[in-house]
Amino acid sequence: MQSALVVVIMSFIVFSGVFLVGDPVEILVSDDADQEEREMMIKSMGLDKPFLVQYGIFISKAIKGDLGDSFVFQEPALLLILDRMPATMELAIVALLIAIIFGIPLGVWAGLKPESLASKSIMTGSILGFSLPTFWVGIMMILLFAVMLGWLPSTGRGDVQIILGMPISIFSWDGFSHVLMPAVNLALFKLSMVIRLARAGTREVLHQDYIKFARAKGLKETRIILIHVMKNILIPVVTVLGLEFGGLVAFSVVTETVFAWPGMGKLLIDSIGLLDRPIIVAYLMIIVFLFVLINLLVDICYSILDPRVRLQDIKS
Amino acid sequence: MPLSESPTIEVKDLKTYFFTKGGIAKAVDGVSFSVGRGKVLGLVGESGSGKTVTGFSILGLVDEPGRIVGGEILYRGENLVSASPDRMRELRGVNISMIFQDPMMTLNPVLRIDTQMIEAVLAHESISKDDARQRARDVLGQVGIASPDERLRSYPHQFSGGMRQRVAIAIALLNKPDLIVADEPTTALDVTIQGQILYEVQKLCSQTGTALIWITHDLSVVAGLADDICVMYAGRIVEQGSVNSVLDKPMHPYTNGLISSVPSRNKRGVPLAQIPGMAPSLLKLPKGCSFGPRCAQFSDACDSIPDISNYENGRQIRCHNPLDKGTILRVMD
Amino acid sequence: MTTVENNMEPEEKGYEGVQTPLRRFLSDFCEAKLAVVGFFTILAIALLAIMAPFIAPTDPYDLATVSVLDSRLAPGEAMMNGTIAHLGTDGAGRDMVSAMIYGLRISLGVGIGSGLIAMLIGISFGLLSAYAGGKIDSIFMRIVDIQLSFPAILVALVLLVTLGKGVDKTIIALVVVQWAYYARTIRGTALVERRREYIESAVCLGLSKNRIMFRHLLPNCLAPMIVVGTMQIAHAISLEATLSFLGLGMPQTEPSLGRLISNGFEYILSGKYWISVYPGIALLVTIVSINLVGDRLRDVLNPRLQK
Question: Which of C161, C276, C287 shows the shortest C-beta gap to A139?
Answer without folding.
Answer: C276
